[in-house]
Design the sequence.
């Protein structure tokens, strides 16, 4: 007998099972390197799986790995130039290698220009596919490892690693590109959103816990003691820079993350800036981006001058006098003994980035502004010259202990501001596995 109620229930039940099994969230640990102040993301690659440490690059489009040294795997594959995937990658470069066939050496292969985003060196490398594995998560702890077949990346070489932290064998690309790490992870389950979040640790490896990156999830993101950072987010649009950025292939748009800073305030006082510099012009110059390939904030000379003058004046009203000789490459420093330490770092003027609407601003405190160099604290802004491609490049220091969510589908950035205000930090995620 046909019973509409029970068949409806069965359909709902099946839908629930399919739905819950098709969404899968992942995480990877992040560490900070004590000599370069850059960040390393760890995942598993090859067969058998091996821990692979990669420089975390928010702006890069395709992950690359040095496959010229110690690349041993039974599961790697090359990509022929005429396969659909090569066409889709749109690299437009094909080549041959007539040495002993192996990782990074085959004929008629699809090729790419891997780039070291710190030194801006590039090379030519073959596209490869190999097994990847990352931890699954419910936002509270890592659960089991999940293997992912045929992860697409480019080969790099040992020379290209120069300038990256010791122990790193390539670059993890988290940019806005169809084959970046977050996009490839989102394709591993049918209903996962292309959303990822990063929380960079402020202390270096070994001195406290790891930071964390979450993939395919809009939250929760739990940090002890029980703070869900996804509840703290304020959103602003991500802006596409139509011209190329770090991608050394000129026909692809930039894969970097730009945001619309409309004004900067110091202790709530507006800094007078040349508005032209804040906008991206038709050739891709100007604007503001977030980069993990520079430890500090790098700005146009005119922006630096305006911000530091206001910062020095506001510090003076707090009875802080800048030292006469700032420590290079910085421009403003204060004696450590003159500055009180607070929950959110050294007590200095706060900087607000006013974003798409007057009421939407990102408040930045001392812990994300100041760099300790021996007996002084210096403002972590450095001079990018008079003709930088991007007027304001916010580096790693500014986003440490903040949770940033990149929502690639809705093209928006969620930011939490300093987690220190909530008495937690990026190293407070619990990596103790639950199974
Ligand atoms: C940096 O870290 C490495 C390994 O994590 C350690 O051996 C080294 O002593 C550290 N250096 C400094 C200056 O702290
Ligand atoms: C791709 O090229 C190889 C030789 O270079 C050829 O054997 C193969 O049939 C081609 N495949 C397609 C799909 O065109
Ligand atoms: C990325 O993928 C989407 C959907 O498959 C496609 O519409 C878009 O053109 C691709 N973008 C690039 C730059 O290839
Ligand atoms: C900041 O300045 C605005 C006007 O520019 C004012 O309305 C607001 O009250 C000020 N906020 C603080 C905390 O001083
Ligand atoms: C603002 O910056 C643009 C681009 O660098 C420059 O052409 C223009 O002269 C500047 N305007 C002022 C008032 O300084
Ligand atoms: C964009 O700005 C740069 C640097 O100021 C300048 O060289 C270039 O001509 C500008 N392009 C356009 C289309 O205005
Ligand atoms: C700065 O110092 C002066 C004189 O010592 C004092 O009157 C004033 O209250 C101080 N201001 C602040 C913000 O500490
Ligand atoms: C988390 O971080 C805060 C502030 O950074 C720290 O005071 C606290 O002890 C940490 N909590 C736990 C449970 O580790």
Sequence:
């Amino acid at each position: 007998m046909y019973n509409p109620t029970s068949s409806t229930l069965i359909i709902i039940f099946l839908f629930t099972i399919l739905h819950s099994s098709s969404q899968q969230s992942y995480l990877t640990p992040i560490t900070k390197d004590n000599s370069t102040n850059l960040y390393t993301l760890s995942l598993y690659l090859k067969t058998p799986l091996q821990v692979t440490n990669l420089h975390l690059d928010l702006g890069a489009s395709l992950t690359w790995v040095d496959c010229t040294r110690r690349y041993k795997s039974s599961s790697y594959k090359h990509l022929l130039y005429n396969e659909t995937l090569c066409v889709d990658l749109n690299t437009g470069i094909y080549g041959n290698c007539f040495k002993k066939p192996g990782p990074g050496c085959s004929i008629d292969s699809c090729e790419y220009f891997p780039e070291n985003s710190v030194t801006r060196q590039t090379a030519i490398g073959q596209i490869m596919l190999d097994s990847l594995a990352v931890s699954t998560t419910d936002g509270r702890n890592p659960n089991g490892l999940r293997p992912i077949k045929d992860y697409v990346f480019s080969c790099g070489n040992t020379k290209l690693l120069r300038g990256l932290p010791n122990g790193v064998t390539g670059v993890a690309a988290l940019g806005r590109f169809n084959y970046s790490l977050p996009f490839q992870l989102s394709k591993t389950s049918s209903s996962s959103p292309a959303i990822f979040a990063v929380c960079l640790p402020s202390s270096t490896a070994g001195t406290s816990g790891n930071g964390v990156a979450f993939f395919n999830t809009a939250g929760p993101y739990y940090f002890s003691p029980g703070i869900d950072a996804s509840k703290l987010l304020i959103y602003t649009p991500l802006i596409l820079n139509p011209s190329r950025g770090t991608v050394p292939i000129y026909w692809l748009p930039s894969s970097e993350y730009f945001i619309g800073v409309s004004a900067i305030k110091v202790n709530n006082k507006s800094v007078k800036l040349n508005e032209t510099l804040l906008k991206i012009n038709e050739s891709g110059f100007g604007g503001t981006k977030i980069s993990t390939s520079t430890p500090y904030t790098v700005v146009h000379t005119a922006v630096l001058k305006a911000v530091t003058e206001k910062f020095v004046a506001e510090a003076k009203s707090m009875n802080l006098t800048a030292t006469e000789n700032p420590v290079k490459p910085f421009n403003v420093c204060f004696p450590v003994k003159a500055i009180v330490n607070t929950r959110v770092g050294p007590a200095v003027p706060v900087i607000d980035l006013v974003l798409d609407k007057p009421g939407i601003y990102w408040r930045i405190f001392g812990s994300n502004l100041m760099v300790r160099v021996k007996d002084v604290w210096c403002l972590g802004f450095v001079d990018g010259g008079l003709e930088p491609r991007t007027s304001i490049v916010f580096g790693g220091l500014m986003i440490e202990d903040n949770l940033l969510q990149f929502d690639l589908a809705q093209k928006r950035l969620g930011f939490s501001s300093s987690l220190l205000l909530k008495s937690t930090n990026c190293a407070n995620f619990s990596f103790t596995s639950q199974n």
